[in-house]
Amino acid sequence: MTADAAPESTLPYPPIHADKQFVVLSDWDGTITTRDSNDYLTDNLGMGIDKRRELNDDIVSGKSTFREDFRRMLDSVAANGHKFEECKKVLRENIVLDPGFKAFYKYCKAHDIPVIIVSSGMEPIIRAVLSNLLADEAAGIEIISNAADVKADDSWSIKYRHPSSHFGHDKSQAILPYNRLPNPPTLFFFGDGVSGASPPIHTSIAADVITDMSAARHADVLFVKTKDGPDNDLHKYCQREGIPHILFRDFSQAVPVVQDVVEGRKTKEEVLAAGKAW
Asked: Which InterPro entries match (predicted)?
């Protein structure tokens, strides 16, 4: 595979919404939710927070790839004997929805704007938690993520969408097909800038932020979620690379910005120039 070639996907993609004027793509862990579910599993059922921090540092320093060390984190949960259904149950009991997301999704649904989750996590885990948080409404949200290889005895491991990519799942590949359409829609992308874990991690880049960076360049309007002010990793990356973006603390702040663009009061350039949603 050349540096510019798209990594081969082991999993199908949903159909492109070629007839839509606006499309929302969003990270899941720490963005639509208030904490990272994979970190939660690793810290509480797997190798623990200290070892996870070490692996995050290895990813940032280039000693290893996200694909390699993310697998090590999740494998530590399975190695401790925690079955897949148990993991889903634990996360349903502990992962919380962003307080503004329901209103945001209601607005998008009312205006026929597809909402697509683009995640480095595993689809059955995300779907289980999402269904718990949004009930019947969750069915309308598409998920593009990795999968899980679950054995007959309920032991499991992650199945990467893009095993040849150092991301495991290169999120940009969910965005680029829209950019290549003859009449591409305006793409809103939401990613998180700090870990959703508790306690917050300041010594290393949160794992899923690495893969948000692969998508950041390709969105028309990029929202970066911050929980600790402007000093967060994705924000720093966008500043360094000259990528315009909007900081927001929860989806209730994103709603009026998206409304302004969808309803024609402001251009995407105008909302990006503001830099913040508050």
From this structure: HAD-like_hydrolase_phosphatase (IPR050849), HAD-like_sf (IPR036412), HAD_hydro_PyrdxlP_Pase-like (IPR006384), HAD_sf (IPR023214)
